[in-house]
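Tutorial handout. Part one gives the primary structure; part two gives the three-dimensional structure as tokens.
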Amino acid sequence: MASDMTMNVNLSRDLYDFVKAAVKSGRYASSSEVVRDALRTKREIALADLERKIEEGLRSARAGESIDGGEFMREMRALSAKRRAGRTA
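Part two.
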């Protein structure tokens, strides 16, 4: 798979050995394939986690467990102001 994007990364010895072993096993043709596969998997996991959190929020809202957005923002602004005031003291 040709690409016009290149990135050099530094790996710990154990990750380097893992990548080399994955290529040697024949499952991957190159180190780049190993890294791309790992990154795709990590992205898929992150997206699945985000989808789970969204569904959890929607279920909570449907069950009437939501909070007023305006009230929440007022509380966050007050908390932020309190923290900023504490730093300058």
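Part three, for discussion. Helices lie at 13-24, 31-62, 69-88. The two ends are 57 Å apart (CA to CA).
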